Amino acid sequence: MKLNRGQFEQIAGGLSRQQGNVRLDNFQVINVIPHVAANGHKWRTPCLSRYGR
């Protein structure tokens, strides 16, 4: 499951504002959570090529 920008905009108001030097925006983080939960692996391994650093 992957959210598109329109779906993300519907929930974006409920997310915390990003602070500091962040590499990923909330859109990328929200999209990787179901992927990691379904596959049970860490962020750093195969997720880097698919979702960025």
The number of domains:
1
Ends: how far apart? 20 Å
| Mean of residue pLDDT values | 79
Estimate percent helicity.
40-55%
* Low-confidence spans: none
SS elements, strand count: 0
How much of the sequence is in beta strands?
Answer: under 5%
Judged by helices, strands and strand pairing, the structural class is mainly alpha
Q: What pattern of helices and strands is seen along the backbone?
A: HHH
| Contiguous helical run count | 3
Taken from the alpha-carbon principal axes, the silhouette is globular
Major pleated sheet:
none
Tell me the Rg in angstroms.
Answer: 12 Å
What would you note in describing this structure?
This protein is an all-alpha fold and 53 residues long. It has one domain (1-9, 22-53). The protein contains 3 helices and no strands. The longest helix has 14 residues, at 26-39. The protein is globular, with a radius of gyration of 12 Å. The two termini are 20 Å apart. The model has no long low-confidence stretch (mean pLDDT 79).
Describe the secondary structure blueprint for this structure.
Blueprint: H1 5-11, H2 26-39, H3 47-51
List keywords for this structure.
53 residues, mainly alpha
Summarize the structure.
The protein has 53 residues and is mainly alpha-helical. Helices cover 49% and strands 0% of the residues.
